[in-house]
Amino acid sequence: MQTNNTPQNIAIIGAGASALFVSIILAKKGFHVTLFEKNPKAGKKLLATGNGKCNITNKNLSLNYFFSSNPSFIKYSIENFGYKEFLTLCEEIGLNLVTNENGKTYPASLQASSVVDVLYNEALFLGAKFSFDSKVENIDFKEKAHIISGDKTYKFDKVILATGSIAMEKLGGCSSGYELAEKFGHNIIKPSPSLVQLTSNDKEIHTLSGVKSEANVTLLVDNKPQKTLFGDLLFTNYGVSGNTILDLSREANMAILNFQKVDIVVDIFPTLDKNKLLALLEKKKKILSGKDKNSLLLSLINGKLIPFIYKKAKIDSKKYFIDNLDKKDLQALTYTLKSIKIPIDGSKGFDSAEVVAGGVNVDEVDNKTMESKKQKGLYFCGEVLDVDGACGGYNLHWAWASAFSLASNMK
Ligand SMILES: Cc1cc2nc3c(=O)[nH]c(=O)nc-3n(C[C@H](O)[C@H](O)[C@H](O)COP(=O)(O)OP(=O)(O)OC[C@H]3O[C@@H](n4cnc5c(N)ncnc54)[C@H](O)[C@@H]3O)c2cc1C
After folding, report:
1. Ligand 1 binding pocket mutation candidate from 175, 176, 354 (most atoms within 8 A of CB)
2. DSSP states of 238-262 as a string?
């Protein structure tokens, strides 16, 4: 609760995930909150989350799923406001959730719109005021904070920048928060797209568009393996997509920004090691003697991949029958099936990225109160900060947890 009798007036810039959440906790504590949102409605990006179902958090929360140039900044918020604390708060505001076997948690309705409705209605119920179609262009701190939107100036005691990142402009993503923060001397860690599809200039990859596989995907930077993930991989007419790619995209894009060479290596047979796969091909070769060579891989892999694998394995195209394949050919096929190397030259960019790596330098922000160390009375929460998460509800959890730290420590 506030210590003096006159409630403090708090301006929140944005009416997205973290803004709605911080407004509810502050209003409960007796603060007067006003949200300025440039869009005509609250939570436009939130509506698009989790393919419209909103993967709101994850039961398997751990610091390993969050990233920043200074990871120690994240610790307090996530340890203080984890999965259980979030569930308790959701129950208090009537937001029912379901958690699947992977820990991914959604509203029970499986509708992102119900998350926006519950949060927005709760904020209104607690007295929060909303100013839509109101882009905040400037903030000035004199005795009080002056918020400048259009031709109007409003005075507040404190200001929270909950402006999100530049990911997906069509959903409200913009650089406005970074620019407002820079005016107070904040440094911006260069944003790069994350949780985004990767592009490849290998034209043969484009011909595989539509092929889906469950694979081990390894990210190579300057030919050195960085990380291997198992999961969905989708070949597209520009490169690669799927959960594995989205989760590798952060490191891939950062390496590309540093002018490093980036490749991915795909093992489309993760369940069999090289020896077992070779033995399987040798056995199948004997059984299918007399048939054409494509029948060797038919039913083992997606049919569209077969000519591609023969070409990549450099099998002589004149070898038509399975019996023409010698031991070396089978070894080359095995090697190719276990390690398709795809050069990566970029990503689909900020317009396709779910989140951004980078943002306001967290060394310049208090990790408990979320107050700027550069400007008293200025606060941050959500993705505008240099914090992002893996796929699976972690980015929204950062929005909730950072908002909770801010609001619970505000005096
Ligand atoms: C397609 C998609 C799917 C996603 N799915 C998931 C998911 O399932 N799970 C998950 O955890 N994360 C998901 N994310 C990420 C998640 O949506 C974001 O991390 C989260 O919304 C960030 O919350 P925020 O409050 O920081 O910013 P936002 O929710 O983006 O809100 C910021 C708001 O500020 C407003 N604004 C900005 N500047 C100004 C200004 N100057 N004046 C007034 N208003 C301003 C913007 O219009 C916006 O409404 C997804 C993202 C996308 C794009």
Report:
1. 354
2. SEEESHHHHHHHHHHHHHHHTT--E
